[in-house]
Amino acid sequence: MKKLLAITLVLTLSTFSLAGCGSKNSETTDDTGPVKYTISTTDPKMKADTKIQKMISEKTGVEFEYMPVIGGADQAKQKYEIWLASEDYPDIVNMGVDNISKYRDGGALQPMEDLIDQYGPNIKKKFGKFYDLLRDKDGHIYSLGNVNLSKETPANVQGSFVVQYDVLKEAGYPQIKTLDQLFDVLQAYVTKHPTMDGKETIAFSGAGADLTYNNPSVNAAGLPDHGRFSIDSDNNVHVALTSDYTKKYYGFLNKLQNAGMLDKEIFSLNYETASTKLAQGRILAGFFPQWVLGGPESSLIAAGKTDREFAKFPLYFDENVQDHSNTVTPSSSGNNWAITKNAKHPERIIQYLDYLFTDEGQKLISWGIEGQHYDVVEGKRVRKEEVNNQIKGDPDYLINEGLASSNSMFSFGDGAKLDDGDYATPLTADAIAGNYDDATKDILKKYNKKIWADFLAKPEYIPAYLWQLNAPEKSTAIMKKMEQAWQKETPKMILAKTQGEFDAAWNSYVGQLDQAGLKNLEQMWTEKWKQYIEVYNKATQK
Amino acid sequence: MRRSIGDISFSVINYMFLAALGMITVYPFLNLLAISFNDSLDSLRGAVYVFPNEFTLDNYRVVFKSDSLLHAGILSVARTVLGTALSVLCTAMLAYTLSRREYMFRKPINLILIVSMYLNGGIIPTYLLIKNLGMTNTFWVYIIPGLISVFNVIIIRSYFEQLPEGLIESAKVEGASDISILFRVILPISLPVISTITLFVAVGHWSSWFDNYLYNSKENLSVLQYELMKILIQSTNQVSSNATGYVDKNVLAQTTPQSIRATLTVIVTMPIIFIYPFLQKYFIKGMTVGAMKE
Known about the structure:
The structure holds two protein chains of two kinds.
Chain A: H1 2-21, E1 35-41, H2 51-60, E2 62-68, H3 73-86, E3 92-96, H4 97-105, H5 113-119, H6 121-127, E4 161-164, H7 165-170, H8 179-192, E5 195-196, E6 199-200, E7 202-205, H9 208-220, E8 229-231, E9 237-239, H10 244-258, H11 271-280, E10 283-287, H12 290-302, E11 310-313, E12 327-328, E13 335-339, H13 346-356, H14 359-367, E14 374-377, E15 380-383, H15 385-393, H16 397-401, H17 429-435, H18 438-446, E16 460-461, H19 475-494, H20 499-515, H21 518-540
Parallel strand pairs in A: 1-2, 7-10, 12-16
Antiparallel strand pairs in A: 3-13, 4-10, 4-11, 5-6, 8-9, 14-15
Helix pairs in contact in A: 9-10, 11-12, 19-20, 19-21
Chain B: H1 5-36, H2 40-44, H3 58-64, H4 69-99, H5 106-118, H6 123-132, H7 150-161, H8 165-173, H9 178-189, H10 191-207, H11 210-215, H12 224-244, H13 249-252, H14 257-291
């Protein structure tokens, strides 16, 4: 209550002070007078008084005060719930869709659609045909995220099947497209180098159940990443864990195992223990996304073992697989902004957001200030060299300058272009390629590519990822049950000595998952997905 | 005095066993200490045991870079000292009252206390209560709500109850009031249990951050653990932003979450380790006092 009072006080005072120098009866209509809003953030270091934020505040009059929500997802959720129960929430909450729907149900949010109609022409314009997707079932818009305007693959995206540079070098830089080709290359290398620095060479490894069994099999089948599911052309959702391609991938792991090439610890590795092995350079190949690989690769570079870095390819079961795994969705944000009942003058927030949706705003939040953070060279924006160096030397630089802030989530996306035809963010192919070390540049040259993203298939538009939708109510319990069977039974297949043993284990595994309620789960998700598709079609085909 | 071969071999095996046990207990901490002083990228490769491979102070530099740390540290010390003193005092007074058989409401109050151990209002009602009491965004929210812990009351009460009744009776005969009996007779002979509880409470205060997180959002009321928690989360966030490519590989080279975690553990544990030896003699005394009971 006290805080509310304080905010009201600040607001009235500021309007009064403005009224003093401006027209007299301007209580709410003043467009640029300073207002301060509180906003939640999950990043404890976020700063509200950065250079760039001040520039945006000058234009819009809106300033922020961050209220940190830290800890794991559970602790954050607790804080959100307490705020909701005590009505102590900040003016703007920046959180996941599930939490936002709780706030909506609790009546804590102010609908935005009328305000956007009045004050948000750029928001509407940029969302274009996707605008109606923002609407809730009741027709109101309760939260706003980014719109993904990128039509090309962002330059930092890369395949998750990785192969060590040295393996490729010894094999004479072959084009590797299929898992069997990878197997042959690895086998040749392991036979020649059974040990590395006195320790056993590990041909293939993984990190955690999903990255070992599920994601690679979906990826090798060329399917979009819907988590543990896939969706067919009739919009039916299928569980990936019992699919043909999963069986095929288990067969591949089994083949590695029987050849003695699979990591002996593969069933117990987690991200940390796998990172250690990767950083030692003992793992030749595997399925490791960038967020697992980042630390180990910098460690390898620091140790001068650049031939142990990894090439990142997409790989398939056979040459005929069509790759649909490189996907683009209308929105890439998992977190949205929602305006709570505590916010006075919500139109000011919409005006602020509308500014972020202009090209001028986009340049400020992603590129920074011209002359300070970037230059325009031959009509193209280029990040200043000294800025790049600062980023390398100081991990807090981006935050302190304001180049990383709560505004960043409204970026049009890496690879998107502004109306002037140039990129919206500094994350361009040139910038990424400029950050590679020499060994990486050499390898890429052998394959006639500039960046790892060049290996990927053409991006395809999909309405959403399945995991972006709210999970059906009972689905979590079923998935938990299936997960148990999955983690218990999968090793039996991978360790099978004969084809017969493998098949028997597979059949018993599929049986157990069926018993856990697989059909039921598929049905629930199919229903959910079809509902979404209906909304999507209605919204976009107007 | 001659010792038989059996005696000697028993001693040898005994000491070896104890030494091994000691090593097992000390090793995890030594390992963390080594990691905290080791280059973080080297730690990532594993193979750090008792001594750092590539000595560096970078991890500590990153942690101590935060300028709010000193202020938060002072607050943490303040809440630990003040909170522990008040909490032990109140707990002991309550425990003494409940240990007196002649106290009329002994049974109902005991019952209420024990019920509260198993049932509580949950986090949201608790928050609303604290808020309506006007304690959010104050320093006192660290001290007052946790003043009495039923578990500690029961431990002290049980200790008081087995003290010889005659002590109190004779003090009463001499004309002592209940207050002076507690402070001049009971507490001086209860140092073992008091020091145990003091340590419990102090460690609890020292390592607590969640009350800060829930009740106090102002930075000038942050305690050390909360600030350290923020640093840890920050370093984890950095890894994920590294994955998006905004931050390139060389940035991460400064530290890794694993190294930060080890460093924080060392920083947080040190004060407790330094205090422990001073309280330890009372623990041992407590054990010997127990041994002499009839």
